[in-house]
Amino acid sequence: DRKDPDKKSVTRCCLEDPYNSCLQCPLAANEQPTWCLCTGGVFGGPMCFPSNATAQVLEPPAPGHAAAVVPRAMSKLRVGDLILTAGGFSKIYAFLDHDSRSVAEFVELATASGRALTASPDHIVFVGPRRRAVFAGAVVVGDELWFADPLERPAEEAPALRPDQVVRTRSVMLPGMHAPLTFDGSVVVDGFAASNFAHVRGYLWGEETLISGHTLALLLHSPLRWLCGLVPSFGGPEWHTDGGRHLWTQWLLDNGGWLQALNYVYGDLQESLVL
Q1: Closest CA to 21 of 1, 48, 49, 2
Q2: Among the ranges 22-26, 204-208, 247-251, 256-260, which has the highest mean pLDDT value?
Q3: Which residues form the Hedgehog protein Hint domain (predicted)?
Q4: Crossing angle for the helix pair 257-266 and 247-255, nearest 10 degrees?
Q5: With contact defined as beta carbons under 8 Å apart, do 157 and 186 qualify?
Q6: How far is CA 129 from the centre of its chain?
Q7: 118: confidence class by pLDDT, cuts 50, 70, 90
């Protein structure tokens, strides 16, 4: 069971799963945990949306006209754009990934409304009445995503989110890897609310979430968020790799793997104390 693994198991790399290479699965007592070598390390792999996914951008008002909300492909987004998030319109200050040349594996989550959210398997999305932060690859049929239609409210207000049940999931290969970082910490992609972040797991106490992976990732990126708010040029192209990843994020990937590795084993603090 991808959502409720054996309580006494240790997390290992699940190469056989087509959606998510780093899910929790039972591990025999005589086996050793491995660290997601299939995705390039504990923090490795794409953490993004494909090039054809769209965000809603708030265009500045032209003389004599009101501000306009327009759809824009992920590949066309730029630092400084005001895009729709779960908290309203928020400015992009940097990118986790921004590469139109690559092709990556994504999970497509089709919903009862006929819409779909497509994200990398380890990207964090929000599901259920409590809007739990989970990996897109761990979403199953029956889970509810949160949909926001910007046409239903004035452009200046936060969107009203409504649940939309997942009816089908599948793995797809698509071009592009794009993940904007907003000051709000979330983004609305193809109408669905999602986190800016990926790969980071939360800490649990049994069935209760002590701190979500989304919140942990927000904390890890708070220095960059603060710095870009103070000096926006720190989010400029010269501070991103050739693949469009901000150097701060790259530094976290290069140096934070040990921390996430511990979390993969000791993410449930209650279980860890028993063991």
Answers
A1: 2
A2: 247-251
A3: 48-213
A4: 60
A5: no
A6: 18
A7: very high
Full 3-state SS string of the chain: CCCCCCCCCCCCCCCCCCCCCCCCCCCCCCCCCCCCHHHCCCCCCCCCECCCCEEEEEECCCCCCCCEEEEEEHHHCCCCCEEEECCEEEEEEEEEEEEEEEEEEEEEEEECCCCEEEECCCEEEEECCCCEEEEHHHCCCCCEEEEECHHHCCCCCCCCEEEEEEEEEEEEEEEEEEEEEECCCEEEECCEEEEEEECCCCEEECCEEEECHHHHHHHHCHHHHHHHHHCHHHHCHHHECCCCCEHHHHHHHHHCHHHHHHHHHHCEHHHHHHC
What the block records as the tokens of 129 is 């009445």
Domain annotation covers residue 5: no
β-partners of residue 254 are none
Whichever domain contains 155, its CATH number is 2.170.16.10
Number of domains into which the chain is organized: 1
CA nearest to 93, candidates 223, 228, 249: 228
The closest alpha carbon to 134, from 17, 251, 8, 22, belongs to: 22
| Residue type for position 133 | A
CA separation for the pair 246, 84 (Å, rounded)? 21
Domain hosting 98: range is 37-274
How far is 86 from 65, CA to CA, in rounded Å?
Answer: 26
Q: How far is CA 227 from the centre of its chain?
A: 22
Q: Is residue 77 part of a domain?
A: yes
For residue 19, being part of any structural domain is answered with no
Express each pLDDT in 188-221 by its tens digit.
Answer: 999 999 999 998 888 888 778 888 999 999 999 9
Flag whether 104 is in a domain: yes
